[in-house]
């Protein structure tokens, strides 16, 4: 421990990782893109290889009280795959390293791996490495995914241009509302020997939280439609934070129209019950595992013909900032927790 | 948690990972080699890409009471690099994902990353991805390393042939003795406000535990000498366990001559002090970060000319088993904790 002490919260998560990785030079010719996008890009001759690593920690990223191990294994793979999709790539290989405490039996780990196997099957990725380690407390899952992409089809966060359309797959806020629902039932069950969960009518929210799927269909549809996005990012921290990442990387502003943000009926209903704003869940909730991307305005009719995608706004010059436009025409500056502007 | 409960200790670490990854088919043509070697092998056209992932957990893999964060960062990189070297590859890219609890300040993480940076510099690898996550307790480090190797130079664990010479880089048991020394001083310091550590004369043991280096020099020397090993493995769990891995993968036996196992003077001295057997430290201690490999008998004179390498035995037919030969000629069957024979 050092003499000067700066709390991590002072710089935010994004500021922290930038500060830590700032002074790392690139030495190898095969390194095309280092830190700062959804995946690293490695030159493999006639194509690019993509590499991403994620860490899932018990008590932070998941709660085993309501997260079945099989679903957790599946979700861990989806999380990694999405980073490869966000570069417009195809996921191909996967390694999983786990740290487990003595509270876990082999049967528990087999449950976890049956979920991993099921995701590998659904997304046609190969498990190519594994490692198990003891842990003092709880379960740690480290997932690395390798994918590939034709060089001319790679998409970075940095390619958004003025007037580009801002598009999104699926809907937002449901995973966050599913989490709230699970947390509420967990509190209700505490000390109750014969719990009766109140999940009826909310199966969609639970599925979004516990059984997320990767938007491979949308990526395939874009390919079929001959569309290569100008920029793309995996929405893992909520629309606001990930939109701001694109704006920063592409040196642009954005106008997002509030009423165009796709929010499921169940998300609205749950938000009503909780006296919460569903738009806040969409903007800052996180956990949606959808893709946010931009396409040239000229491709408007083409993108409109692709199913499962919504156009929610357009790219503006950097000096106009990142704005959310409400139905009455007021402008709200987009902000995100943990996102501190570069000094 | 399931009804039937089998403790992880019942099948051992190696049995566990085999049991978990057993039913995973390979679906992608680019996957050359999945789980079961030091690194995964991915076909990248004119060469192979290598991928390895490791997890380092506080309280299990390191103790921050005596492990400086800067050294820990350096060691985390070395651990990953060694898996690439063990495939006869060149490490090129690295991702680091960390989980940190609130006890860590930014200055602490900067220390950790200064060690990572220093190792990246020494071994010419590029940090291409990073992620930070909160954790409930302690520090978790997940390291993935990507490397490459010419297709004709790749070395697996499975290529050892009868009469091949068994070779080793560096010396064994010192890291384990360094760990014992640190643990002893930690106990002595407990409750002592003004501790005076007793490390004099044992700097080498401490260095092997706290500042390990990757045997890149040996790999380069083999290349210069025109030697491609028939099999190779990173010694991370002690000579016995890793030798048994080669024997199992190559379907062979081995004879290792006890007096030829390279053990440093300081390791002998520390073992005397602790009334311990330095050979046990070499066989089962772990943490040495050296390479164990085999070369054809015909290359005996060539390998003898390469510095920093010892010949410790030779490969035998599978039915003769894995034997340790003592100076008086007795044979001891090689066993390793955590290593349960395949059923």
Describe this structure in words.
The structure is a homodimer of 343-residue chains. Chain A has 343 residues and is α+β, with helices and mostly antiparallel strands. Helix content of chain A is 33%, strand content 25%. Chain A has 10 helices and 13 strands. A 7-stranded mixed β-sheet of chain A has the order 8-10-7-11-9-12-13, with helices on both faces. In chain A, strand 4, helix 3 (106-123) and strand 5 form a beta-alpha-beta unit. In chain A, helix 4 (174-189) packs across helix 5. In chain A, 52% of the residues are buried. The interface between A and B is large, with 86 and 86 residues. Chains A, B: GO terms for molecular function: ATP binding; magnesium ion binding; thiamine-phosphate kinase activity. Chains A, B: Mg(2+) 5 binds at residue 237. Chains A, B: It catalyses: thiamine phosphate + ATP = thiamine diphosphate + ADP.
Helix/strand structural class of chain A: alpha+beta
Main pleated-sheet profile of chain A: 7 strands, mixed
Strand order of the largest sheet of chain A: 8-10-7-11-9-12-13
Specify the oligomeric state: homodimer
Spans of at least 5 consecutive residues with low confidence of chain A: none
How many strand segments of chain A? 13
Interface with most residues: A-B, 86 and 86 residues
Number of helices, where a helix is a run of at least 4 consecutive DSSP H or I residues of chain A:
10
Task: State the shape of chain A.
Answer: globular
C-alpha Rg of chain A (nearest Å): 20 Å
Keywords (chains A, B): ATP-binding, Kinase, Magnesium, Metal-binding, Nucleotide-binding, Thiamine biosynthesis, Transferase
Binding site for ATP (chains A, B): 113, 130-131, 157, 236
GO molecular function, one term (chains A, B): magnesium ion binding
Binding site for Mg(2+) 2 (chains A, B): 54, 83
């Amino acid at each position: 421990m050092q003499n000067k002490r700066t709390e991590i919260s002072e710089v935010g998560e994004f500021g922290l990782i930038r500060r830590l990785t700032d002074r790392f030079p690139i030495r190898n010719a095969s390194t095309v893109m280092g830190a700062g996008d959804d995946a690293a890009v490695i030159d493999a001759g006639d194509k690019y290889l993509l590499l991403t690593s994620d860490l899932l920690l018990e008590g932070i990223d998941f709660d085993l009280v309501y997260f079945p191990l099989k679903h957790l294994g599946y979700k861990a793979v989806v999380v990694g795959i999405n980073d490869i999709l966000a570069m417009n790539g195809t996921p191909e290989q996967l390694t999983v390293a786990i740290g487990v405490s003595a509270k876990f039996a082999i049967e528990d780990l087999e449950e976890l791996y049956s979920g991993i196997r099921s995701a590998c099957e659904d997304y046609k990725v190969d498990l190519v490495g594994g490692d198990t380690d003891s842990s003092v407390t709880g379960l740690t899952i480290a997932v690395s995914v390798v994918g590939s992409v034709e060089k001319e089809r790679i998409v970075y966060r940095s390619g958004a241009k003025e007037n580009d359309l801002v598009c999104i797959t699926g809907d937002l806020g449901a995973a966050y509302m599913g989490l709230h629902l699970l947390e509420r039932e967990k509190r209700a069950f505490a000390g109750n020997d014969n719990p009766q969960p109140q999940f009826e009518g909310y199966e969609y929210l639970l599925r979004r939280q516990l059984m997320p799927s990767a938007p491979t269909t949308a990526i395939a549809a874009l390919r079929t439609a001959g569309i290569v996005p100008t920029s793309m990012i995996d929405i893992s921290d909520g629309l606001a934070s990930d939109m701001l990442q694109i704006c920063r990387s592409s040196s642009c502003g954005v106008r997002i129209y509030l009423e165009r943000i796709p929010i499921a009926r169940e998300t609205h209903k749950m938000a009503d019950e909780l006296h919460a704003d569903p738009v806040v869940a969409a903007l800052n909730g996180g956990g949606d595992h959808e893709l946010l991307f931009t396409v040239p305005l000229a491709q408007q009719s083409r993108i409109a013909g692709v199913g499962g995608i919504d156009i929610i706004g357009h790219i503006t010059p950097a000096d106009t900032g990142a704005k959310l436009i409400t139905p009455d025409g007021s402008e709200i500056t987009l902000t995100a927790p943990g996102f501190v502007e570069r000094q």
